[in-house]
């Protein structure tokens, strides 16, 4: 309709006045719009990648079953994005009694304010419209969250100003949950919520109503409640009250990307790589190196797996890598800006800030572990694009005293000239097919990738300053007899 009804009488005569539609709950609304989207063959949750065969089918089932649900997963697994994407299944606009704090349905009011206004004005009651995004309320659960924050409390100042008794419903200061009426209420990190507040959610989860401050006020709220939690907190530490857990309809487990390709697709979607200053070209193998850093970190025993390695790591690393290449392009005049391995080392702060170390890792140090992750990622990337590489002549050249200084501020053409002094390096890189018309920038990046892989295989060495040279002897391992 070109113009939305602004009074109750006009609303009755509009499609929103249909008795079936007027009586529809928010869970019915989500279910109906989801079914329509499935019938149209449209993506259910646009922008959510990697969950098509795992998480999303379970989420669809939960919505179609009209369940409240919880998403269990480590940090950086798109839990919040999924919850916010649920708003796309709501109607674009929703009619409410104008002035209502809890989105009262004009045909089924639940607050005393709305009931009085409808009784006084009848069909002339003004109607307001709430967009779908305003129907999503999100709260981070912390130990200091109170019942008043979530449910509500009696406001003595409001009672005094209005001349009401404290037991009058009009004195209530509604919490976040009642204000989410006829919408979605998301509570993140559920285990951090105190047990007292968890108990306060019992009624709304099962009976669909809440009570404020012990007064006999029933508010039959219409809301879908969604939770998120870390699996370790949820299952092992006993921070979830069992009756509340029993009232959650579906428990959905999220996960990190199952393949490097899926991870690259997510990172490409989320990372800011298109810069307004210079054109940026990120070779596929460089994007793969960045993604594999996260995959290597998730398998490293020195990194806390219970904390996880967020998908934000490769996103922020790629952004840092591109920024370093952009800086070089601005200072050297090189176009386009092509990231290479030295730029990945320049992005170390985006790696060390995203990993939680175990005791063994703390002894080694986050910076050193991050450098190891980069080298292992380079080796895995080269192995994925090349069956084998003949490194004998390259290694012999370095063993014979050859050395290269690679920094992130030298133009790519200069780096290619330096790489040409290493026997067979440039020729083999061209034969591998890594360079696809990307010019000197892509060739320099590919050559550096090969050298990094050889460092990972301990055939050559690389200093923290970026100097490649002969392989360093491995440190002698301590034997039990050494302690005698």
**Annotated CATH topology of the largest domain:** Rossmann fold
What's the number of extended β-strand segments? 12
Per DSSP, the total helix count is 24
Subunit arrangement of the protein: single chain
Largest sheet: 5 strands, parallel
CATH architecture of the largest domain: 3-Layer(aba) Sandwich
Strand content: 5-15%
**CATH C-level name of the largest domain:** Alpha Beta
Work out the radius of gyration. 30 Å
> Whole-number average pLDDT?
89
What is the topology, as strand order, of the major beta sheet? Answer: 4-7-8-1-9
Proportion of helical residues: 40-55%
CATH superfamily of the largest domain: P-loop containing nucleotide triphosphate hydrolases
Cα shape: elongated
Question: What's the end-to-end separation, in Å?
Answer: 89 Å
Question: How many separate domains make up the residues?
Answer: 2
Structural class: alpha/beta
Low-confidence stretches: none
Give an account of the 3D structure.
It is a single chain. This protein has two domains: 8-253, Rossmann fold; 260-470, no CATH class. 44% of the residues lie in helices and 11% in strands. The chain has helices spanning 8-12, 19-22, 26-40, 55-64, 79-85, 112-121, 147-150, 156-162, 176-179, 195-200, 202-206, 231-235, 242-247, 260-270, 284-299, 312-332, 341-346, 348-352, 359-364, 366-385, 392-399, 412-419, 425-432, 439-456; strands at 69-72, 93-97, 127-131, 136-140, 152-154, 172-174, 183-188, 223-229, 250-253, 404-405, 460-462, 467-470. It has a five-stranded parallel beta sheet with strand order 4-7-8-1-9. It has a three-stranded antiparallel beta sheet with strand order 10-12-11. The mean pLDDT is 89.
